[in-house]
Amino acid sequence: MAKHSRTPVHAFEEASDRAGGSLVRLNMGPFRPYLVTHPDHVQHVLKSNQPNYVRAGMFWDPLAPLLGQGILSEGEGWAASRKILQPVFTARYVNSLTSRMAQIITGLIDAIVVPGRRFDVAEVVSALIHPTIVRLFLGATISDDDINRLAPAYDTGVTARSIRLLLPSVPERFPLLGDRAFKQAIKTIDEVVYPRIRYAKARGGAEADLVSRLVSARQSEPDADRLIRDDMVAIHGAATETSVTALTWVWPVLDAHPEIAAKVYEEVDRVVGRGPVTVSHLPELTYLKLFMDELVRLYPPGWILPRTAAAADRIDGVEIPAGATMVLSPYLTHRLPEFWERPLEFDPERFAPGNDRVRHRYAYFPFAAGPHVCLGPHLFMMEALLLIAGILCKYRPVLHTTGPVTPRLTSTLRPPTGLSMTLVPAGRA
Predict the structure, then answer these.
(1) Which of 15, 95, 282, 411 is the most buried (most CB within 10 A)?
(2) Beta strands per DSSP E along 63-138
(3) Radius of gyration (C-alpha) of the chain in whole angstroms
(4) In this structure, how many other beta carbons lie within 10 angstroms of the beta carbon of residue 27?
């Protein structure tokens, strides 16, 4: 994999192509994980024998100081957090938030977007998503200053340890580039989050936001503040990082596929007009939803889902020793020719009703699968439709790039840094 050191994603693509769905070991020097891409093998690890494959080791250990012992952990901590948080992410509850979400996003677009001004795509998407999620889940009274501190801290938290993600055999006692920034990011997050917990406690559960719900659910537990903090950080991080990453990919994909972009624009113009986008528009944005389903097929934000084998196992005749690292990757499984016709072609119609009837259940898992499946796909889709339609009902994007946009591997699958575009009034692109 050394020849792809400058573009690691190509190394994983090549390894997957050579494996052809077989279970293989990657040669990464002293670190030799198993690459798991075939849907049958994915199902075995994430569902059939899921208790044996734990979220530890590669990826998880470097991020543990940030993520803590809540919904993104294992065992009793994970089970308790999921029981508390699952009601918050039901379709019914998310739908109850959607009107407020639409108002927040519309207001932020009006405040942030300056027509004709060139801007960094990831920065603007983050500036739209972070305040929306914070206002919805962490309380309406949180200050703009604290929101502005949280966004870059989370960004640093999930990117600063990219080197440790690719060099998991390096012990923590040996400092690597990004370690200091990672610790500072955690300090900043804690400085914002813990006062929110104290505020919710002082209010005695008088509000209906996520923090108040967590305080009510955990108030009698030992180390309750820490557990609440871990759940808040995990939910905020998952709800924002996944959305920011995916919605940053929207714009280079539209730019690279003008015929698909034209269909998206036509639907938004017909359904939403010149806005603002509201909850009533969402059921009619059918092609835009297909577009997003296809987007997270080719560019799933959570591109890698490592697991560690707690005990020895056998998968399709291959002996798996205890302690082995299993690298599952939606990014690679979603591109297997055996399960996807024209796998590298961006085609939203493949998700049209009826076209997915024969697809393997585990050939498509952009939000993980099994007991640890992400709680927030419905929330993500609502965010995505509101934000994209909210922008496109008024503007058209002009991307400033040449050639294909190559993913870069951090804890999420991001476009390259510095991707920029200009928004011009619709009809003048």
Answers:
(1) 411
(2) 118-120
(3) 21
(4) 12
